[in-house]
Specification:
Elements lengths: L3 H34 L3 H27 L4 H34 L5 H38 L5 H60 L39 H28 L6 H26 L4 H24 L1 H12 L3 H34 L6 H55 L4 H10 L3 H13 L14 E7 L4 E6 L5 E5 L3 E5 L3 H14 L5 E5 L5 H4 L8 E6 L2 H5 L17 E5 L2 H7 L4 E6 L15 H9 L1 E12 L5 H14 L2 E6 L8 E7 L9 H6 L1
Parallel strand pairs: 5-6, 5-8, 6-7, 8-9
Antiparallel strand pairs: 1-2, 2-3, 3-4, 9-11, 10-11
């Protein structure tokens, strides 16, 4: 017979793996829908908002029903099983929906249309699974209370669930998706859902046998049978309650708790958005960098939620919540300050930890820890405290999760689309800090007025130190000390910043060297070309266009500085379409005149802001030549432009006798990746030749030129075409 500590441990294992499934699904579904909806930020944010909205709906709608049920174990088993079942279905129908989505969005949709299609499609397609996902934590909380007989369990279950989210994030990004692909990754997590359901049945039956062994016990309330009816465990009392048992509930406290849950969700995910955007300008800014930053964010949240019950044993919520909120405001202020010092932190971490794949991952985790470590601990502690305080026999955990998730659903759009482009990293971050100070002031004012005499000596000293003017002074001092553009600085001492634009998805900058050359960088990391290599960039267009006997219409994927695309104007009678993902890059094309001849493009050359993969799938036009510029394989979304599916989509856009040229940055590809790309290209274009862009050992570039029909080039054909 298992002991109660073993049952408690198994319940936390359930929460751990349930959290791994939730974040694993989220990361994989987001990337799967990106193949059809595109990687434009409105589409990506719409997918995230739909996932959050479904989760909030499930937590809200099913909270009371699960809490009042006599069989919470059956609810939890049903949620896990159904989530796995729907996930398996999604692995089959998401690719079909992606085919429809490209047509529904169109070539140049308005932001409203793109958002509506992305949000609506994802919400409807995944609503059953996300509703079940949102209800798992409230169901597991009630199930755990029935099995282990403890009311105070929200914090540790939430901590285990969040720690599982870390494992799901890392497993999906580093292991499962690269090794298995999207569909098999979804199936792997679906199997894990089934395992969770089976383990829950085992735990429930074990607890039921223990209850049968106790005289007068009613075991039916755990997993099935005759239940104890409504009411569950009742309202928790003691140190984990909002107030002590002898104290009446103050007026308006539930409303204040609700607004705090909502705004901490909004500000917390907003801080995540701002922090990751700042780290993007320092770290390698690959999909693995995002996974590292998100993992640190989640680990801090899990640790804070796990530690909060220890604080709750000796202090009432109305006394400790102002302390937690002030700690969150202060540490988030330090986190914004850490963004400015992130380049120096990165250099120091590399010096200590060294280089190599694993050590590079450790370096990125260390840098992200300076921004997210302490603030997220307070975030986890605050949700744990509020979720436990609001818990009762009629529910509350789901209500808390729903409000917090609803705020989180609004954060990517509000801070990513509005806050960052308008305010920039500095003022968006400081605005978040100000929001936390406002929440702190609300609780201090309410609780001091309600129970000023009960603070005690230590809390009174803390309250005297953190008066309203103290955080204001700190905020103003840091605002004055920080530069306008956090973490954005030249990579070389001889460079100076010419132009800078903070966009919805990326920060784009043009730097000028001492000899007057200009270079384009995205997120201060990815170099997208420059004037010093203008002759080589023009060859990206000239070589494939010269290989075609008579090109009339061309498509260029990845405009960048516009130098390669602008070279197409030299070919008489040619009409060309250019596709660029980042709007701010298009806005800075004027910085690269006269090298890109932007003023001479006229009506023949036209640029569209769109995801290249989605554009190829949606356009009805046929092209004589399609040119795909260099894409960094580590940049999120760029890897899909080297896939078999994309090469096939390009083939469908080629006119009779058309050519497709894919340029490959050999200096950014390892041997395994290069072989995979070439193998996929040859499968679609058996008639392929490789052309070296120019003799260069530092940054070698090769172009694969494929055709649909056998083609023979006589010696000297390029020289004759040039003449």
């Amino acid at each position: 017979m298992r002991s109660p500590p073993v049952i408690s441990a198994l319940l936390h294992v359930l929460s751990l793996f349930s959290g791994a499934c939730g974040l694993g699904y989220q990361m994989t579904w987001t990337r799967m829908f990106g193949l059809g909806l595109g990687h434009e930020v409105p589409a990506v944010l719409a997918v995230l908002a739909a996932l959050f909205a479904g989760t909030a709906l499930g937590a809200w709608a099913l909270d009371r029903r699960v809490s009042e049920s006599a069989r919470p174990g059956r609810w939890y088993v049903s949620f896990e099983g159904f989530m796995g079942f729907w996930a398996m279905l999604s692995a089959g129908f998401i690719p079909k929906l992606n085919e429809l989505a490209s047509g529904w969005i169109g070539l140049e949709p308005s932001p409203a249309r793109r958002w509506a299609v992305a949000f609506g499609l994802d919400l409807v397609a995944l609503l059953p699974a996300t509703v079940a996902l949102g209800a798992t934590l409230p169901a597991l909380d009630r199930f755990a209370s029935r099995c282990a007989g403890e009311a105070r369990r929200v914090g540790t279950l939430y901590a285990a669930n969040t720690l599982g989210a870390v494992l799901g994030t890392l497993a999906a990004a580093h292991a499962l998706v690269p090794a298995l692909g999207f569909r098999r990754t979804i199936l792997a997590f679906a199997v894990l859902n089934g395992w969770c359901a089976g383990l829950a049945l085992l735990v429930g039956r074990t607890a039921m046998r223990r209850a049968d062994a106790r005289p007068g016990a009613d075991a039916g309330s755990i997993v099935g049978g005759r239940g104890s009816g409504r009411g569950g465990m009742g309202t928790p009392r003691g140190p984990c309650s909002l107030l002590s048992p002898a104290t009446s509930t103050p007026p308006g406290w539930r409303r204040r708790v609700g607004w705090t849950l909502f705004f901490t969700g909004l500000l917390g995910v907003g801080y995540e958005v701002v922090g990751i955007r700042g780290l993007n300008q320092v770290l390698e800014n690959t999909v693995y960098s995002y996974a590292a930053a998100l993992s640190v964010f989640l680990m801090g949240t899990a640790l804070g939620a796990a530690l909060e019950p220890s604080l709750a044993r000796s202090t009432r919520l109305d006394r400790r919540l102002p302390f937690l909120l002030s700690g969150l405001a202060l540490t988030s202020l330090l986190g914004v300050w850490a963004l400015e010092w992130a380049p120096a932190t990165l250099a120091a971490a590399r010096l200590v930890l060294g280089s190599g794949p694993l050590r590079s991952a450790a370096v990125e985790l260390a840098v992200a820890g300076t921004v997210f470590g302490l603030p997220t601990m307070f975030m986890g502690a605050i949700f744990s405290a509020l979720g436990q305080a609001i818990r009762s026999g009629r529910g509350g955990v789901g209500w808390a999760l729903a409000l917090n998730t609803l705020g989180a659903a609004l954060a990517p759009g509000w801070f990513g689309v509005v806050g960052l482009p308008v305010l920039g990293l500095k003022w968006a971050g400081l605005g978040l800090v100000a929001g936390y100070w406002v929440l702190w002031a609300v609780w201090v004012r309410a609780e001091r007025g309600a129970d000023r005499a009960g603070w005690g000596l230590g809390w009174a000293a803390a309250g005297s130190m953190w008066t309203l003017w103290t955080p204001a002074v700190l905020w103003v001092v840091l605002a004055s000390a920080l530069p306008a553009r956090l973490a954005s600085r030249p990579m070389q001492a001889a460079e100076r910043l010419r132009s800078y634009r903070m966009g919805i998805s990326d920060a784009v900058a043009v730097f000028e060297t001492g000899d007057g050359q200009r270079v384009l960088r995205v997120n201060n990391r990815f170099t997208m070309g420059g004037t010093a290599t203008a002759n080589a960039e023009r060859r990206h267009s000239h070589i494939p266009l010269l290989l075609h006997p008579e090109p009339r219409r061309a498509l260029f994927l990845g405009v960048g500085t516009g130098i390669s695309f602008g070279a197409m104007r030299a070919h008489p009678g040619l009409v060309a379409d250019g596709v660029e993902l980042v709007p701010e890059v298009v806005g800075l094309l004027g910085e690269f005149e006269p090298e890109n001849a932007r003023a001479d493009w006229g009506n023949g050359l036209r640029v569209t802001v769109a995801d290249a993969r989605r554009y190829v799938q949606a356009t009805p036009r046929q092209y004589d030549v399609v040119v795909a510029d260099l894409f960094h394989p580590g940049r999120d979304g760029a890897g899909t432009l080297y896939t078999l599916e994309h090469f096939r989509a390009v083939r469908a856009r080629l006119a009779l006798g058309g050519l497709f040229c894919q340029w490959l940055p050999l200096y950014q590809l390892d041997g395994v990746t290069l072989r995979m790309v070439v193998r996929a290209f040859l499968e679609v274009y058996p008639e392929t030749r490789a052309f070296l862009l120019r003799p260069n050992l530092d940054t070698p570039v090769v172009g694969l030129v494929g055709s649909l029909v056998p083609t023979r080039y006589r010696p000297g054909v390029l020289a004759d075409r040039l003449a």
